[in-house]
Amino acid sequence: MVQVIEDVVSGNEGISLAQPLWRTEQIRSLERRWAEEKGLDTYALMERAGGALCNYARHHWPQSHTWWIFVGPGNNGGDGYVLARLARRVGLDPIVIAARAPELLKGDARRAADAWLAAGGSVILAQDAALSSLPSADLVVDALLGTGVHIPLSLAMTKIVATINALHAPVLAVDLPSGLNADTGRAMGALVRATRTLTFIGVKQGMLTGDAVDGVGQLDCDPLGVVPDTKLISAALLIDYPSLKAQLTPRPRSAHKGDNGRVLLVGGNLGMQGAILLAGQACLRAGAGLVRLCQHPDLPSASLVQPELMGWQAGMDETWPRVRVLGPGLGQDEWGLACFEATIECKEPLVLDADGLNWLAHRPRHQDNWVLTPHPGEAARLLACSIDEIEADRFAAVTRLQLRYGGVVLLKGAGTLICDGQSIFLCTEGNPGMASGGMGDLLSGIIAALLAQGWSASMATRLGAAIHGEAADLAAAEGERGMLASDLLPWIRRLVNPTQ
């Protein structure tokens, strides 16, 4: 969860549970509007940012004294110069290491640099710096590059980033870690790996997905007193389990299994029964009333593993399922194709995953009754492009998928994205322990169970992603490495009952 610091100067802190996420141009627009309304220039915001950084650094690293502040050629560097001047004023020892000589700067950045020099400060040029001769850094501040990074870093800047990453001191990133594209979450070559990041005005949408998760560290946001225009629609919305769990109200005392939905899961080919079993178990633990599995006829009954999972035979009542899942362990042979063709045209809500998505890539169609849950590889097949193209701009990719195929699309990965055709949602729950087989099968089962219990496709997908990731975070208490999909099942049950 992103911490929102409402007033750094006074030390009051608050948490926003449904935060808007912004594109960089929207942030710039907010800055300009604020300056116009206040009758001030944007340098006033730079002074505020420097003050916020000084208070923030002293709060989180109170024993630090020597700060190495790396400053770049733009306004991000200007923030660093203001920070240096304020740090020196309170008795600290800031050392400014610049990527560009102060006299070559322009605008607000030049004004901040001049103020630092006028206060008695000095500047070491990064290209001339003999860092080994400097006092050891207690804190490193990355004020190199801000939100304007859209092309790969230069060789000189790449070397400075490598220097920062090699230092044995905590790193505070100013607004965002240098090298990150704030709109896409893509590292533009090198990327500073920060311990903490203090971003300003609002959280940029690219700070919570893709490469950003390895660079941002602990993310905090200071609005600097800028209030977004209520008419301005955010680029995306950050969701999490705490903000959504109010949806999970207790069931009526008179509830029976028929009230909680009937789900049919199709998959489980030879050698892949585990996938459909995990999806079915997650579906049960997420509260579906009745669950049947349609799996390869040569496989043993799923009820031998989970007695509550019923089988499905050809000729059964086709009106029985309220929701269907297609794909876990489906396979790409003739049996898998037959199941795909028999299921894809169903009118009920449908969750499509794994080989269901691979078959869809070969037989594309647009439907509004389904939820698609691709990982980047499956997304690349669906869009006939490379995985690198998907990861270069995950926001664009999830939007293209939704436009091409309809329904609700969930793009898996670090910083899961959900597009329902109206809005994009970002879920940060989850951890690297989920990089193991079967995790996606659980997600399909959870979403299907929520659909069966009456939530809309958009809400079921958002809620399912949050429960799935939160369950993984709870299961990771015993370690991420070696965590199994089945380790999440007890936590799923607990999370769908938050008030009990």
Structure report:
- The chain has 500 residues and is of the alpha/beta class.
- It contains 15 helices and 21 strands.
- Strands 10-3-12-21-20-19-18-17-16-13-14-15 form a twelve-stranded mixed beta sheet, with helices on both faces.
- Helix 7 (273-285) packs across helix 13 and helix 13 (439-452) packs across helix 14.
- It is elongated.
- Residues 4-17 have low confidence and may be disordered.
**Average pLDDT level:** 94
Approximate helicity band: 25-40%
Q: Assign the structural class, choosing from mainly alpha, mainly beta, alpha/beta, alpha+beta, or little secondary structure.
A: alpha/beta
The outline comes out as: elongated
Termini separation (Å)?
24 Å
Enumerate the spans where pLDDT stays under 50 for 5 or more consecutive residues. Answer: 4-17
- Strand count: 21
The major β-sheet equals: 12 strands, mixed
Number of helices: 15
Q: Report the β-strand fraction as a percent range.
A: 15-25%
Task: Give the topology.
Blueprint: E1 3-7, E2 12-14, E3 20-22, H1 24-38, H2 43-60, E4 66-71, H3 75-89, E5 93-98, H4 107-118, E6 123-125, E7 139-143, H5 155-166, E8 171-174, E9 196-200, E10 203-204, E11 218-222, E12 236-239, H6 241-244, E13 262-266, H7 273-285, E14 290-294, E15 310-311, E16 323-326, H8 334-343, E17 350-352, H9 355-362, E18 370-372, H10 376-383, H11 387-392, H12 394-405, E19 408-411, E20 416-419, E21 424-427, H13 439-452, H14 457-475, H15 489-495
Helix pairs in contact: 2-3, 3-4, 7-13, 9-10, 13-14, 14-15
